[in-house]
Design a protein that fits this description.
With 94 residues, the protein is of the alpha/beta class. Strand 1 (44-48), helix 3 (51-65) and strand 2 (70-74) form a beta-alpha-beta unit. It has helices spanning 4-21, 28-39, 51-65, 75-78, and strands at 44-48, 70-74, 91-92. Helices cover 52% and strands 13% of the residues. It has a three-stranded parallel β-sheet.
Length: 94
Amino acid sequence: MVDIKSVARKVSQDETVAIKNLINYIDDDFEAVVRWIYENKGRASSTGIGKSERIATKIVATMNSNGTPAGIMHAGDAIHGDGGRMREEDGGIC
């Protein structure tokens, strides 16, 4: 039988360490990306294929929930003409 409390404590401990380590990634590149998103006049666009598309979709949903206009484009569709929906003021994030 799995010790649920022990597993939950271990996961919580691991996640705490991971969150503490995020501070190491707050650098000039992080600032530049946040500034770009904040100052962007168009929609942020994210793309992916497979699992990365699911992650991109979650990023876009979170951005839209926070009032940042964003859209998702499947990378396969982008190379087959859907990239034309992008406007000059739009930008891609990943």
